[in-house]
Amino acid sequence: MNTSDFTYSSESAASAEKNANRKGRPHNEPFPFQQQHPQATTHLMMKYSQLHVPILYGPQIPRQDRDDTRERYCRALLTLFVSWRSVTNLCDTNQTWKDAFSV
């Protein structure tokens, strides 16, 4: 992230009211990473004004109806759809992924 990114980030919040009467699609809203994040100085997160559908690459999500893949299924859905910063936000150390998913 360079000085123009910081300028863009600070100006976008200040200019939100000024652009209230602006026509067209709203601007994408930038958010910085937390300072302890390894990419905090080089990257920004963007909240897009138009909805996007994510396309997942990699192995498919395991089946939920099979006992041998139930734990992996619960872990995959929790990591995709629940906000978290560390694994303990999703599942305690004395808890199974299935139990955490049920809560």
Characterization of the model:
With 103 residues, this protein is mainly alpha-helical. It folds into two domains: 3-47, no CATH class; 53-103, no CATH class. It contains four helices and two strands; from the N terminus they run H-E-E-H-H-H. The longest helix is centred in the first third of the chain and has 12 residues, at 3-14. The model has no long low-confidence stretch (mean pLDDT 84). Residues 1-37 are annotated as: Disordered.
How are the SSEs ordered, and which strands pair?
Layout: H1 3-14, E1 29-32, E2 44-47, H2 70-81, H3 87-90, H4 97-102
Antiparallel strand pairs: 1-2
Region (Disordered): 1-37
Biased composition (Low complexity): 9-18
- Classify the beta-strand content into a percent band: 5-15%
Rg calculated over all Cα atoms: 19 Å
Mean pLDDT: 84
Number of strands: 2
Unreliable runs, pLDDT <50, ≥5 residues? none
Largest sheet: 2 strands, antiparallel
